[in-house]
């Protein structure tokens, strides 16, 4: 079932001395219910812009986004966001921070029901013992767990993750990735993850959308990660396919991200390896792709 | 150990961080470091203060003024003691007036006994004064007599020589020839004589000053003996009045007299012949009854003492501060939320912020006076007159004017800080609010105000400081009872004590201002979720 339909999404910024600056153009993507999409690209290419437009926090310049047959208009709890920094209210406990959204989204639920929703969200991110701690008493990883709990407690249609693990150390990051996978396997929430970590997107995502370099960034390639769910880190890391996927992403980012072609779809049967040489023209790319397949 | 860390935390929150090395030293933590810290944060300030006191005591006597020498620290300390004694004695009289029964008798006996002791003490003090004067007389004569003689002699000589010159010139004038040359020569001589007289007068004046200075050479023993005698005389004066308040002039005695008179009037009314003027006698009874009731409810008319004036000043500054907060915080929040509202408010802030309290006060006094043509019966004054503690402090239009002036001068800091705090709400937090679709009230109460709270308190702290400074000035101008009024009274009074008492006020105002500031710092720290944000 198609849940999110992004068509011709574009973002222009006004430029007082000329044509408007085109940050993102022609972004077309359909997302299935329960699918986990990764959005990757060089920094500054506009992946976060796309995500904030989906969230409704950033005005859409052209095109549109349809979520469950309704075009989005502004931000709302049906599209919960986990930001790069935890963005917790420092004057509220973990419980209070999660309750802030829950109060608003479940206005008709009883007090006990709301309490139960908040507690189960905090438990599912592993904070059962720290519910009443304040952000200053928590580590960065714990704070980000609260951020995730706040988002999933809203029972959103789409979960938008804006580099949520970007500021964590790698051990904490792996822990939180496991937490995330576990929650999503259970809840089956459609998710879009913006990241610049290739390992992370391969491990977590069903499809990885690779964006070309800006300005006027758009989709360059889309790669299906053909691993079954539920996923297990050790098993994946022992599978050569995992590294081939990484290879493909790295080769796109280093060799092909600057090219403008029609978006190309790849899966495990059409992976392209890292060659160490920048592809100069679209024609050359065609040849290379023919060799690979 | 737990106690130690609790103590350290309390010290940290109260901002008295100079105490923490003491606590650490007592518990034996890194003694060398703590001693260094104590040296820097306790010993150095204390030494600096001692140097200040020393400079003060050396420099002050060098400047002579109309009100006497600039008082030295010891004189100021004595003046503070004088202020306190006055307060205690007035309070004693107040309670004496209301005492009844055996309590009164007991105090009365004690006071009379003390009065008896005073005779001997006074005689002793007089003796000491005489002895001191006698012992210093020789030295006094040695210093003063020569300068007195020199002055008197110079004065006599000058007078004589002037007389001689005048006589000589008169003679010449009467014999003046008719020739113009001789006439102009006479004028010249007269002018020269005037100049000589000026020079001589200057010499005499210089000698007079020297004599005056010699007279003022202080003899410490004489001075202290004289002070001791004055103090005893003051105590005697107080005791006489106190005994009066405990006996003939006590409320109990007055009530007894009033009762007796009432009884007499009633008896006269009851036993009057039928043809007597019953109307007149009845009126007398009623009048006596009324008088008895007033006497029973009467209080000692205690004058304003400085401690009471301080409390009134504090009440006034808090009234003004409350008023300022109630106005400034909501307006500040609106300014921070809406750039349009901010644009509308900016000119007023810019225009009125620099206006001095001395300009506001007369304007406010006239406006408040307009609202209260009959202040005694105005509902606000009547209402305050019924509130238990506050009724003792006489809330009048002057009090309200001073409070409003304090508010007008101090609200700007809170307003600007609140607006800044609200406007600087974290953009990420606002994004969260948008995703959660929080309503206006939730955004305001759960995100905006908590974010702005530390800055709001920083503004309130500045406001309270400004308000305290403004208040003293306002009280001097409005002669509303309070610390400022005390200073004004001392200035116009000009007794030998009042100059030093003004110095006492400097320290009292300073200490209270400092305490108010510390209290606000503690509040500011308590509302700061991020402790680093609260400055000391």
Q: What can you tell me about this protein's structure?
A:
The complex is a heterodimer of chains A (293) and B (536). In chain A, 36% of the residues lie in helices and 22% in strands. Chain A folds into two domains: 2-78 and 160-292, P-loop containing nucleotide triphosphate hydrolases (Rossmann fold, 3-Layer(aba) Sandwich), CATH 3.40.50; 91-155, no CATH class. In chain A, α2 packs across α3 and α6 (198-204) packs across α8. With 293 residues, chain A is α/β, with parallel strands linked by helices. The mean pLDDT of chain A is 90. In chain A, a hairpin with a 7-residue loop joins β1 and β2 (21-32). A seven-stranded mixed sheet of chain A has the order 6-7-8-3-9-10-11, sandwiched between helices. In chain A, strands 2-1-4-5 form a four-stranded antiparallel sheet, with helices on one face. Chain A has helices at 47-55, 94-105, 111-124, 140-152, 170-187, 198-204, 233-237, 240-256, 282-292, and strands at residues 2-13, 21-32, 36-40, 62-67, 70-71, 79-82, 158-162, 190-194, 207-211, 219-224, 264-266. Chain A is built from nine helices and eleven strands. Chain B is an all-alpha fold and 536 residues long. Chain B has four domains: 2-62; 106-238; 250-297; 306-533, MetI-like (MetI-like fold, Orthogonal Bundle), CATH 1.10.3720.10. In chain B, 81% of the residues lie in helices and 1% in strands. Chain B has 18 helices and two strands. A two-stranded antiparallel sheet of chain B has the order 1-2. The longest helix of chain B is centred in the first third of the chain and has 74 residues, at 101-174. The two termini of chain B are 26 Å apart. The model of chain B is unreliable at 531-536 (pLDDT under 50).
